[in-house]
Amino acid sequence: xxxxxxxxxxxxxxxxxxxxxxxxxxxxxxxxxxxxxxxxxxxxxxxxxxxxxxxxxxxxxxxxxxxxxxxxxxxxxxxxxxxxxxxxxxxxxxxxxxxxxxxxxxxxxxxxxxxxxxxxxxxxxxxxxxxxxxxxxxxxxxxxxxxxxxxxxxxxxxxxxxxxxxxxxxxxxxxxxxxxxxxxxxxxxxxxxxxxxxxxxxxxxxxxxxxxxxxxxxxxxxxxxxxxxxxxxxxxxxxxxxxxxxxxxxxxxxxxxxxxxxxxxxxxxxxxxxxxxxxxxxxxxxxxxxxxxxxxxxxxxxxxxxxxxxxxxxxxxxxxxxxxxxxxxxxxxxxxxxxxxxxxxxxxxxxxxxxxxxxxxxxxxxxxxxxxxxxxxxxxxxxxxxxxxxxxxxxxxxxxxxxxxxxxxxxxxxxxxxxxxxxxxxxxxxxxxxxxxxxxxxxxxxxxxxxxxxxxxxxxxxxxxxxxxxxxxxxxxxxxxxxxxxxxxxxxxxxxxxxxxxxxxxxxxxxxxxxxxxxxxxxxxxxxxxxxxxxxxxxxxxxxxxxxxxxxxxxxxxxxxxxxxxxxxxxxxxx
Length: 575
Description:
- There is one protein chain.
- This protein has helices spanning 19-25, 77-92, 108-115, 151-159, 194-198, 210-217, 249-259, 267-288, 300-309, 323-339, 356-361, 376-385, 407-410, 417-431, 469-480, 509-514, 517-531, 541-551, 557-563; strands at 2-6, 9-13, 49-52, 59-60, 71-73, 132-133, 139-142, 166-168, 175-177, 204-206, 223-228, 263-266, 294-295, 346-352, 372-375, 449-456, 459-467, 488-492.
- It is an alpha/beta fold.
- The protein folds into 3 domains: 2-91, Ubiquitin-like (UB roll) (Roll); 127-206, Alpha-Beta Plaits; 211-563, Rossmann fold (3-Layer(aba) Sandwich), CATH 3.40.50.
- It is globular.
- 49% of the residues are buried.
């Protein structure tokens, strides 16, 4: 242990601890911009400077290790003036049109400028040239707002092991860039959106889709249906000041109805169909020992990743569409027929925690299913624009007949949830016997790769769950090299699963360092499942009715036509 003083407080921390970590351990806040624990620890922005007694200059607290007997000041006049000068320099090369920025009010740079009363820019001079990349269907990059903190690089390169962006050139000419300066649309970006979640300012954001949704809501000839993904309901409330992970399902439904949507349905219903189709597909493959392991296809960023990086392993991918695409297909076929609507007059909007869904919905294999995708953040902005007092809303229920879902569908929002939901149904479909316990806790947890062996109908099934594309890479290398003995694999691109998707409310680095956001949202998802009357997808009465009336058997010809698709090799670089 190392003993030191920080702002007159006696502190004891393990050897190897940084000044920043030591200060936080005793409740002392040191501001940061470039720092993200275990993702970007480079000491670049220097806003976290502190003064160590007996040393010249400042110590960058996020990378300076503590030493025995250190006496540190984090808030002396000298330190404060130093931070103000650093902020002044950053702001001198920053687009300061804050009122029209999507991060206005949730910008770490703006918060620091306010905290240190930086109201005038002393250092005026040449500005870096501005560029905007808005070619992709998901992400907009605005270099005029970039502060070169490199957090986006850390998320893409260190956490996801993609490396679609990096630092180019040096000195004043430094910039965050893709290979050859091309659009993110044309390089190896998977559109997971973790770079947006990491960005402290407005240099990265999702491509806005709310304008077209507002337009359709005002069109009397268009029947606008909205569906909401499971993870949205445990993230949306955060945009209105509610505690992290609060389940706001009822308020969300009420708000959507007030916005003017003709019907408000639950993507969880689509997730139950995914389990029926994917579970049936797995049973057929398992019994025939064909293309095992079968790998889930719910996550569009993961699908884009395998298409570009492991095309030879595509036969292992399930042919199922993702839940919202399946649901869109059913709304424009079964539901339209049942209600006597012309499918061409139905406009399906999906509210997702994910920006890759924006890419997925316009894939040539699935362009007719869903017409627009909103992120959780975009929906929050629409609710605010409509002057709806979200926190004051009464709870309302999803509309019938497409609003009923199982608890198994709810846990699609967390890593391991798809696997657990599938195992619940696969077990009972294969044995014809009811499970004594529906929870498969072996596939839950924070580990990047989770393994389990379950016995179904007297046979052992080895399964694996991976979240984050770095962990996906490990699994795929094992399969490619013949070192895997899995039969069933779930992969989600975002660490933690959809609850931490690229379209969820953005948390500052301080919040991320002090609160386990993932754990709170995950706990809420499992709570929804535990409180559900129906906890297995194949027992959903709506699902049973639609198979009986319209689809026929799971995996049958009609179901395959509507609910399945195909995936093919894609170039990593379209340049």
